[in-house]
Amino acid sequence: xxxxxxxxxxxxxxxxxxxxxxxxxxxxxxxxxxxxxxxxxxxxxxxxxxxxxxxxxxxxxxxxxxxxxxxxxxxxxxxxxxxxxxxxxxxxxxxxxxxxxxxxxxxxxxxxxxxxxxxxxxxxxxxxxxxxxxxxxxxxxxxxxxxxxxxxxxxxxxxxxxxxxxxxxxxxxxxxxxxxxxxxxxxxxxxxxxxxxxxxxxxxxxxxxxxxxxxxxxxxxxxxxxxxxxxxxxxxxxxxxxxxxxxxxx
Length: 250
Known about the structure:
The protein is built from five helices and eleven strands, in the order αβαββαββββββββαα. It has one domain: Jelly Rolls (Sandwich). It has helices at residues 7-16, 27-44, 77-87, 229-235, 239-247; strands spanning 18-21, 51-53, 57-60, 91-100, 109-112, 132-137, 148-150, 173-175, 182-186, 191-193, 203-212.
């Protein structure tokens, strides 16, 4: 398997939990992604189920189902080959987006990780959740737009719990971006975005992720049912039943 990264870059990802690729995505792709995202956002922003966050912009999910321009990311080797090297040859892929609006101050995101499912103490056969998540920047991100802050190596500190705030942490790295820059991160690397200033421009990100395919339990063989009885069990709202029927969410 040909991996589009050096051994030093791959070792750095395993040690630090992230890999920064400047100017990775072609400019024409960035323009096309931006145009598609603007169109989708205009269609969805007034929808009653639009995923808007207070002072924090808009999330847009399921981009692969909303515009074919994003299909080119499915087999995008500069990121896919790295994910396969790290996670194994069979991975599942998904892509969504986030927009922060121009001129809106204090639109930051506190310290967080994406896979908060690691118990303490660790069970003997617990499968540690490894995923590779990525951000593609469509707009310039300077100090006014809010730096991305990462805490190198924190993906290996399984009991680390940072406060739900935007405080500075020892060893953090502040990163700024130009359109076309891409960062790959371990799903459990602690990170945040600094609050925006009133003079900020808009901040549009393509968010994508890879997970091991074997984690999925969907069965597609055999005779399908016309009405799934388990749908009624899920609808009961019993949290343990929902979890056991593959309805767990973090």
